Amino acid sequence: MLPRRPRSLDPRHSLRQSDRLQGTGRVAARIHMSIRDEITAYLTTVAAGRGIAATALGPDVPLMEAGVLDSLSLLDFIRHIERTWGLTIPEEEIVLENFGTIAAVTAYLEKSQPSGVRR
Predict the structure, then answer these.
(1) 3-state secondary structure labels for all residues of 49-83
(2) Region labeled Disordered — which residues (predicted)?
């Protein structure tokens, strides 16, 4: 399990009051970091814990082949996504096509979110 990030780095705690009140859904209102930035930040932490340099992570790098994720850490990553974006990801959608690269995860989350959410 990864150590918790300080609240100041956790995007769930970076809302301004005005953002909370406008609400087009929990996710659209809370975005200060882009989806791709949040995913990259999380995976950079995971990679560092495995001795993989952040420079090895790119949007199209296969996360499992690069050793960033394995089957157990993929499940931790899915739980992180569900908590961060308030989603429930169906088991049948947990496939490498959706979660194999940072670009794939970003695309999956963008199509799963309200229309106001961008990279």
Answers:
(1) HCCCCHHHCCCCCCCCCCCCCCHHHHHHHHHHHHH
(2) 1-22
